[in-house]
Amino acid sequence: MKLIIAIIKPDRLEAVKQELYKADVNLMTVNEVLGHGRQMGVTEVYRGAKEMGNLLRKIRLEIAVNENFVEPTIKAILKGAQTGEVGDGKIFVLDLAECVRIRTEERGGVAIG
Amino acid sequence: MKRFTALLLVLLFLGLVGVVYGEDPKTAPPQAGAATQTVVPPATPAPLKVDPGDTAWVLISTALVMLMTPGLAFFYGGMVGRKNVLGVLMQCFTLLCIISIQWVLFGYSLAFGPGKGFWGGFDWIGLTGVGLEPYKDYAATIPHQAFMIYQAMFAVITPALIIGAFAERMKFSAFVFIMILWATFVYDPVCHWVWGVGGWLKEMGALDFAGGTVVHINAGIAALMMAIVIGKRKGIGHKAILPHNLPFTVLGTALLWFGWFGFNGGSALAANGLAVNAFVVTNTAAAAAGLTWGLLDWMFNEKPTMLGTVTGAVAGLVAITPAAGFVSALSAIIIGITVSIICFAAVAWIKPKFGYDDALDVFGVHCVGGIWGALATGLFASKAINPDGANGLFFGNPKQFLIQLVAVGVTVVYSVVVSFIIFKVVDLVMKVRVPEKDETLGLDLTQHHENAYTVME
Q: Which residue of B6, B42, B108, B454 shows the fewest CB atoms closer than 10 Å?
């Protein structure tokens, strides 16, 4: 089992979701986050006071998958989120120790899907 | 380049102030002199008397209509994405500032000046000769400047209505230029034709109590044209762009409804029975239309929606605007119900068929609703309500319906053509649409370097 965390541009969320559905990945958690990597933020000015290099809005996706879904999920996120510009985001893949479905108390791989 | 443009704009305004100020002493007597003139018994006709009640009502109405522009800003602002809400508020608020100045400098003269041609001419530039004594041809019982400032608020809100069509994608600098040109070359002439002394649509007998043609059809059709020429918002069609704060939209509608009592009630230009009639039918039509749209939602979209109900209320207010001084409360109910049905069809069925991106349905509500209101005036107008008006088709005067049709047609054609030219000229000089990158980031950050909402402290 793996936990895939992807940081993407907010306006790519819809495209990423569509690609994930096509890859049969239907379960995900979505968060709004702030951050920046190489792409710097945009200057903000409030009554003349400048805020330089502020953080930009990003979307953080968390998807728990079984081994055979790892590559399809990564490919789907790439397909949906890639624009070729700085700021497209990152995908992190983590090992997942356990997964429990609260309703049935099922554990492991069956609980993920 | 951007700084240069801004500077140019300021200089332009200052230059105009200079020109106007320079002319002042030659033509205009000092205000104090003008005021005392009415006290001294004149040789020729008796001076017009200022009525305190009428003046108070028109000034209050002016303040009510002023509040409609920020109200409209919240009505629209709630419907856009949250990265563009300041962009909409800023555009509305800037118009309040720009047109207020334009109106005093030359807008009022072009729209209401005594010229009999294409527009009112330059006689009243910088309010030369627009004093504190009444001007009989417009309003015989209130100071001329009270009429002027009341009309200023109409001139402000009309271009502001258009903002909803090109929301979320217009460059702010281009917006400023387009709006100054639009106010001067579209609003001011059309206003003169319908309401000005010697205006040709007025002399033909077209009825427009509070601005159905001048304000709503005029702005609504310009909105459709600009929405088509600027193109669709990025990503539209793939996903719905959801309203980011519907409570804002409801608050905005409430402010619009409240302000509309001044818009329609104040158009009587006196504190009298006609004002009361306009007040009553305004409330009645808004209520009937809001209720009807809610019911239509219930029938076709499973549940009555908040956005639908407030949209209906605005459509009802639009439709009753030209009719407010000529129809009864029962006619207002019929106008309210029918306008919601027609606008609902325009927004839910016609817009998707043609595929234009009139972002906040300015055309579907203001133009379609305005046209229906203008035609309904030709159907339901009655001399029993307003002896200075005319009878409509249902009261035995089919000719009035035809006159209304001509006034609508002329406004639509003129507004479309000139709006198109203005848009294209500004587009050639400075590109009207924001770059794709800026559209993605939102107008708040890219056009104004501000964020409406913090995600965290």
A: B454
- Domains held by chain A: number: 1
Could you write out the three-class secondary structure of A40-67?
CCCCEEECCEEECCCCEEEEEEEEEECH
Provide the CATH number for the domain around residue A69: 3.30.70.120
b/e B13-41 (16+ beta carbons within 10 angstroms → b): eeebeeebeeeeeeebeeeeebeeebeee
Cross-chain residue pair A32–B455, CB shorter than 8 Å: yes
Q: Distance between CA atoms of B113 and B410, rounded to whole angstroms?
A: 21
What whole-number distance in Å separates Cα of residue A33 and Cα of residue B212? 46
Q: Quick check: pTM over 0.90?
A: no
Give just the sign of the alpha carbon dihedral B216, B222, B225, B228: negative
The helix (H) or strand (E) run that includes residue B113 is: none
pLDDT tens digits, one per residue of B122-174: 999 999 999 999 999 999 999 999 999 999 999 999 999 999 999 999 999 99
Please check whether the domain covering B17-33+45-429 is classified as CATH 1.10.3430.10. yes
Task: Enumerate the residues of chain B whose CB falls inside 8 A of the CB of residue A45.
Answer: 449-450
B137 touches chain A (CB under 8 A): no
CA distances, B365 to each of A24, B143, B229, B290 (Å): 42, 35, 19, 12
Q: pLDDT tens for residues A52-80?
A: 666 788 999 999 999 999 999 999 999 99
Is residue A32 less than 8 Å (CB to CB) from chain B?
A: yes
